[in-house]
Structures are given as structure tokens and as C-alpha cells.
Amino acid sequence: MKKRPRLSVKEALADETLAKAAAGDLDACVHLDALGLLIGPDESGPDYAERLRKLRGNIEELRTKLEEGPVEFYEFSLTRAERIREKAYQDAVSATWGLYDFAIHWVPGFYTNQGMGLLFAGCALYSYEDFFAVFVIRKGFQKKDRWLIYSRNELMAHELCHIARIGFHSRAFEEMFAYRTASSGFRKFIGGMLRSPLDSYLLAGGALSLLAVQYANIFLLTEPLQWLYAIPVGLFGYVLSRFGCGQTAFRLARRNLAKVFDSADALPVLFRCSDRDVYAIAACLRPSALQQWLHKRAAESLRWKVTLRRYNC
Predict the structure, then answer these.
(1) What is the reported pTM?
(2) Do 184 and 150 touch, CB atoms closer than 8 A?
(3) Considering 132, 148, 169, which residue would you say is the last residue of a domain?
(4) Do 174 and 302 sit in the same domain of this protein?
(5) In the chain, N or C terminus with fewer CB closer than 10 Å?
(6) CB atoms within 10 A of CB 229
(7) Is the per-residue pLDDT at 38 higher than 80?
(8) What is the C-alpha separation between 311 and 122, in angstroms, rounded?
(9) Residue 115's domain spans which residues?
(10) What is the Cα Rg of the chain in Å?
């Protein structure tokens, strides 16, 4: 069984380690990768190290300010007394380690009800520019794992996946990865359907237009116009077809990786892929073609050098 890293952010982001990462030292980058500090697509060693320096500085700055009093972060007022203790992270971290081989211990988290909507359980607030992230979850999770329909462990594991992939700017597969932490098979499968606000609007628009067409055909029109049903069918069809294409590419890419890597490593390797990578890997029907593609990408990309080193390809 793979050993999970347990270093603090101060130890992990020491100047010596970041200097090695900037120089492209693969062993240092592999260690950082295991801590959920993934290299972004086309990110160079110096850029990666600079991003992690900013992360370290932001975490230290937050810690200092919390010693002085409440800290205003977006619309939330964060206090030291409401910090989420490390014990509350354990199950979520175990889930992400089991699925994707990363263990994030460095994200500050807080219990708060401030700014929470009626049914809002919590989220991670994060910045793409400097990799900084903060958890905010309801106080109802402070003494128990569940609040209404939500599980604290699933919520945190889901958001940890997004935090680890901050640098990827992913759209097509981001929610597919995050929803694989769900305990429900249905949520695992269907969760990737709503990959952006647009999908939610299209589904809502489809439902509303279906009601409108039904109402018009029954009460307003003397002769029902069946072609009007093409509007909701088109909206539903677009979302479902895009979801189906994404699921197919995801499944093919994972299957193809399992022919080149150890089968248990296929999903963690896929997790470290950009959207473009996933589609390209799905199109590599022969293992020899995929190996050629992987080594070509490794010659161009520090991220792929690190991935191939970690997973022995």
C-alpha cells in the first residue's frame, strides 16, 4: 500500500524543496504532487515554484492575521476559534488518496453560518493565480458528519479534488473527477452532467419550455403544434449528448491508460490530465501509440515527466 505523506505545508514548501522544483528535480516534484500540489498544464519549474511560494506566503499571512483577530475573506468573517481541526479532514483525505494518490493537509478550513444560503452546506474558495484555498462549511458539521442531505466527508473530498486541479482550468471532466468521491453510484455517474452553470440553465430552460409548450398546445392553440416540442428536446439533447461524449472519452482514456500503466494507477494518471490530454489519450487505440504520445508529452512537459516518474512508465 502506498505511504501517504504527512508533512506540514511549512516543511513541504521549504526553500530547498522549492528550489529543487524550480530546477525541475523530479523527486522533489513527485513529493509535492503527492501533497496535492499538482503542476498545471504547460507550467514550467520556475513558474510552479513561484506559485507555491505565493501559496506559502498566503497561508502564513492568514495564520498571522488570525492571531490578531477575525479575518474578512470574501463575504466571510473567519476566526481562529472556528478553524476545522485536522481530525475532520482524515476521511476526506483518505478518500482522495485512495482514488487519486494525493493527500492535502494544507488547506485552512472554518466552520461558519455567515453568508450561507438556506440549503448551502459549504464550499472551497480558491484563487487560480496563487493556488490559495480556504474551506468554509456549516457549523452543523462541527459535531457530526451529516447536515440534511450532505456529508461533511464527501463535501470536503469533492472540494479537495477541485483544489488539487486548480491549475488545470478544466471544464469537460472536472466534475466527473470530483463526483467520484461520492458514496452513491448514481451521483458518481450523473454528477459530471452539470459541468458548468450553462448546463444548469439549459436543463432548467428545457423543463420550463416543455411546460410552456404543453400549456400553449392545450389552452392557447386550436390545433397543437407538435414541432414546438423540438425546443425542450433540443435543450435536453444538447446537455445529454455532451455528457455522453464526455463519459465515453473518460472511460476510453482510463481503459487505454490501464494497458500502459498498472491498472490501479490508470485513474490517478487520468486525474493529472488536462481536458485536451483526456481526449488525446482516448483516441490512442493501440498501447504503442499511447506510449509514443506519453513520451512525446514528457519531452515537452514537466507535468508529464513527473507523472511518468511517479507511476513508473
Answers:
(1) 0.86
(2) no
(3) 169
(4) yes
(5) N
(6) 15
(7) yes
(8) 34
(9) 1-169
(10) 22
200-216 mean pLDDT:
71
Closest of 281, 177, 245, 116 to residue 125, by C-alpha: 116
Same domain assignment for residues 85 and 195: no
153 & 262 share domain? no
DSSP character at residue 5: P
| C-alpha distance across the termini of the chain, in Å | 19
Structural domain count, the chain: 2
Mean pLDDT of 32-55: 93
Percent over 90 (pLDDT), the chain: 46
Residue 177, CA distances (Å) to 10, 49, 161, 209, 252 in order = 28, 25, 7, 31, 15
Same domain for 180 and 105, yes or no, is: no
Strand partners, 73: 76
Domain end call among 152, 169, 186: 169
Lowest mean pLDDT among 178-187, 223-232, 251-260: 223-232
Going by pLDDT thresholds of 50, 70 and 90, the confidence category of residue 4 is low
Nearest C-alpha neighbor of 111 from the set 89, 90, 92, 135:
135
pLDDT digits (tens, 9 = 90+) for 149-195: 788 899 999 999 999 998 898 888 998 999 999 888 877 777 776 66
Distance CA 33, CA 102 (A): 7
With CA atoms as reference, report the closest residue to 250 among 169, 170, 159. Answer: 170
The whole-number pLDDT of residue 249 equals 95
Per the model's pLDDT, the better-predicted residue between 214 and 297 turns out to be 297
Q: Are residues 175 and 161 in the same domain?
A: no
59 contacts: CB under 8 Å, gap ≥ 6: 9, 106, 108, 132
